[in-house]
Write a structure and sequence with these properties.
2 copies of one chain form a homodimer. Chain A is an alpha/beta fold. Chain A is built from 6 helices and 11 strands. In chain A, the strands form 2 sheets. Chain A has a 9-stranded mixed sheet with strand order 5-6-4-3-7-1-8-11-10, sandwiched between helices. In chain A, strands 2-9 form a two-stranded antiparallel ribbon. In chain A, strand 3, helix 4 and strand 4 form a beta-alpha-beta unit.
Chain lengths: ~220, ~220
């Protein structure tokens, strides 16, 4: 059974993006600091066409996620940073160029219909306008026996959590304080009961794998 | 040189107490879940006069903190849960009975003057009415060559962080979501720059030792 996994990096004070996101700083002020841990890893660099990179426990966690991923769901903001009709979006082709790292079908939640874009390396971007459940259904079909990953942003993850559709949350806690921005755990209709099933840590990042349980 | 260490348990969504604290639930709804990890440890049970308890990495972290502590600073709320004049506080003797676990001098921040209370086992409670710097000065003198610990609540820790007086923050991140309550990292005048110098983790709790750095 294909599971829905949410996977995101979060600061110790709970933010997944800093304040004032822009095209120049899509993750807001300081937000890129949440991802420095991953940029240096072989499992990040290889699908981005970069040589070398560190191996070790952090790399194993990321490599494992890539291997398990059969399809990705993301919000429009995560795709392009924009909003509104695509003709007015200066980043309408997304952040990743001709050979995006996903190498699986990606489903982008948007209010603005658009033809599917086929990229190199197995990545496609389909644009889903009829809501999170429709996007998940399409992603499940595309993922076959692998997992569906929701990468963000926070509001998309919150929508899936509120709908009770998330099986597992993987949170990479980075020991920095952003002091403001977008919180991962805001906007939940009711508290979500989680159980840590695996925790791997270093001074750089703590990877928490959390199974979603029924409320206690 | 005596250092000022802040030491507190926090939920994954950033809360150090749940909503609606009361005399019956001093840590608010669900707040006691932040401390379940410590209750089962030998290093917690022994100073509370309880037999047995688990040993291992979590226990080592707590035992190390007890050993390093020469004095404690805490807020009035953490001491008794009350506020206002002591005559009207039904818990004016504090939570810990005749033989509190601290076994060092404790300095309680309050607006209401009161004589020092001497307890068994080396614990005393002095009541400091002239602010956080005065309390720290007295605690430093009492701690000799050991550290001063600030146990909480959040607002006291925030006051010390804002005053630039904290050397190290030890945060025990517990993988539960409280969904509301008192946040550790609210109320900071500006973002605090931290560097993780040690991280120890299990599915139950992640212990982050964070050195406070100058803003970057």
């Amino acid at each position: 059974m294909t599971r829905l996994i949410s996977d995101i990096s979060m600061s110790l004070d709970g933010f997944v993006a800093g304040p004032n996101p822009s095209l120049e700083q899509p993750l807001g002020a300081g937000g890129e600091r949440l991802h420095e841990w991953v940029f240096r890893l072989r499992s990040f660099r290889e699908p981005h066409g970069l040589p070398g990179g560190e191996t070790g426990p952090d790399d194993d966690v990321v490599a494992e996620s890539w291997r398990a991923t059969g399809a990705v769901v993301m919000g429009r903001r995560m795709f392009s940073g924009g909003e509104g009709p695509w003709e007015g979006d200066p980043n309408a082709d997304g952040w990743w160029g001709d050979d995006p790292p996903f190498r699986v079908p990606v489903f982008v939640l948007t209010h603005h219909a658009r033809e599917t874009v086929q990229k190199q390396g197995g990545t496609s971007f389909a644009f889903v306008t009829d809501g999170i459940e429709a996007a998940l259904e399409q992603a499940r079909a595309a993922a076959a026996d692998k997992d569906v990953y929701v990468g963000g942003g926070a509001s998309v993850i919150q929508q899936y959590l509120n709908a009770g559709l998330v099986d597992e949350l993987q949170v990479h806690v980075v020991p920095v304080l952003l002091g403001g921005g977008v919180r991962l755990f805001d906007g939940l209709d009711e508290p979500v009961e989680v159980e840590a099933t695996r925790v791997i840590c270093s001074p750089t990042v703590t990877h928490l794998r959390l199974a979603i349980r029924a409320p206690r």
